[in-house]
Design a protein that fits this description.
alpha+beta; five-stranded antiparallel β-sheet; 15% strand; 476 residues
């Protein structure tokens, strides 16, 4: 039983959810008008019925007073009762003995009620009754007159109310139809920008064309929606452009080491197939070739790792924490010395606290030290300094190399950019780009200047954080 009862509302909900927004607005408009017409009909019907009853009662009272006055003058038994006109009012006299007098030819009225008899006996002055139980309903007014009473009655006619109700029904149907038409027109007009927006979105989805903005029209929520979608399309265009540039740059940078690696491998394979590997390549040449292959594989591995790191686009996968940046710098310097045994890293660091991602920060510091190590002379260490200045943490990496040309500084942190003087050095041109991305993610700033030793001075400023409870800022 309960399952059957619940199916109806669920079906109605499913049907409603399948309707379009335009259809829903049409149904809502038609329903609202139908409810308004029904309420108006009920109120108007009650007012009309009340007005008609009031008019009938006033007429009955007036006719009864005239008849009672005549009866008191002539007596109930002798008073002349007005003849029945064929329609309209009916009269009757109630004599003291309970008998009644009616005009000749007048239709019979319902029997005298007990309450009307009490009026005739003088228990009350008057009485208004409605008799709706018979085929014809009567409104009967009883008024004390002499030793009895007189009654005036009228048939209760619902015809005007029924006619009014029929008229209201026709008007209501017309209003509902008109309301549905108006609601659909308003919905079509109001949703026209949505339709155009939908068509534009479908066109973008089918053509994959992100260059055309959707026209900014409409107002309020629709305008905000269009602007949001245009902003999303702009972001997608930027993302697609960045992917295209990354793919082009990656292909360009991978081509040279891959070509060199392929040529060396093909040379080894060709000599091995001929059986002349040992004779064509002395031990010293083979060693040099294998070292070149190892260096090329290492370069490719580094480039692929940096491309993968850069392609992720952000460093948000790693959770942030309050950390001592001095520990990060020391760990990065240790890794740099293991990768570049011929380069010395001189540390001058102080315990400073930042809110950051340790792995990303260590990668950025390592890239800065690697970059400086390429340029530092063998007898000159890379100097790394870490301190606090006001509300910022300052990291400086200083080398004693030839320095950076002023023309190269604006593009120093661009992806794959390499100065002309660095073309012959190992590297992909991605290291400093990754540094810039990490610093930006930590709301920091990078700057480039000339070192007092003549080389490059790369500086990173990061927002300082309060140290955890129980920690101090002792020098490392």
């Amino acid at each position: 039983m309960s399952r059957t009862t619940g199916r109806g509302p669920r079906r109605l909900i499913r049907w409603w959810r399948r309707r379009s927004l335009r259809g829903r607005l049409t149904v809502i408009a038609a329903t609202a008008i139908a409810v308004s017409v029904f309420v108006a009909f009920q109120v108007a019907s009650e007012l009309l019925a009340w007005q008609l009853r009031d008019t009938v009662e006033e007429q009955l009272r007036a006719d009864a007073r005239v008849l009672a006055t005549n009866a008191e003058r002539a007596g109930l038994a002798q008073v002349e009762l007005p003849p029945y006109p064929g329609s309209g009012r009916l009269v009757r006299a109630i004599l003291p003995d309970g008998s009644i007098r009616t005009p000749a030819g007048q239709p019979a009225l319902p029997p005298v009620s007990e309450n009307a008899g009490r009026v005739a006996r003088g228990a009350s002055a008057d009485l208004l009754e409605s008799n709706d139980g018979d085929e014809e309903g009567y409104a009967i007014y009883t008024l004390r007159a002499g030793d009895g009473a007189v009654q005036v009655a009228r048939v209760v006619d619902d015809g005007p109310i029924n006619q009014f109700g029929f008229g209201m029904l026709l008007i209501g149907l017309l209003c509902v139809a008109g309301g549905a038409l108006v609601g659909r027109t308003v919905a079509r007009t109001g949703l026209a920008p949505i339709d155009r927006l939908t068509s534009a979105a479908v066109r973008v989805a089918h053509t994959r064309e992100l260059d055309a903005d959707i026209p900014d029209e409409g107002g309020g929520e629709i305008r905000r929606l269009i602007r949001s979608i245009n902003d999303m399309l702009a972001a997608l265009r930027d993302s697609r452009q960045a992917q295209r540039l990354l793919a082009e740059d990656a292909a360009h940078e991978l081509k040279t080491p891959l070509t060199s690696l392929r040529l060396n491998v093909e040379l080894l394979i060709r000599l091995d197939r001929r059986g002349t590997l040992d004779s064509a390549l002395p031990a010293e040449s083979r060693t040099r070739l294998l070292n070149d292959l190892g260096a090329q594989v290492t370069e490719l591995s580094t480039l692929v790792a940096e491309l993968t790191d850069l392609a992720r686009g952000d460093v948000s996968d790693e959770s942030t924490e309050v950390l001592d940046l001095a520990d990060v710098v020391v760990a990065a310097a240790t890794r740099a010395e293991s990768r570049m045994p011929d380069v010395e890293v001189a540390l001058d660091v102080t315990s400073v606290w930042v809110n950051g991602r340790p792995a990303a920060l260590e990668r950025a510091v390592l890239n800065l030290i690697d970059n400086a190590g390429k340029w530092s002379p063998a007898d000159q260490p890379v100097q790394v300094r870490l301190r606090v200045e006001e509300e910022s943490v300052v990291l400086e990496v200083d080398d004693a190399g030839p320095g950076i040309d002023a023309a190269d500084i604006p593009r120093l942190f661009d992806r794959f950019y390499r100065a002309d003087s660095a073309r012959g050095l190992p590297g992909s041109g991605l290291g400093l780009s990754i540094v810039q991305r990490v610093v930006d993610a930590h709301a920091g700033r990078t700057t480039v200047a000339r070192s007092a030793r003549g080389g490059a001075l790369l500086r990173v400023d990061l927002p300082a954080a309060a140290p955890p409870a129980g920690e101090d800022t002792a020098a490392s």
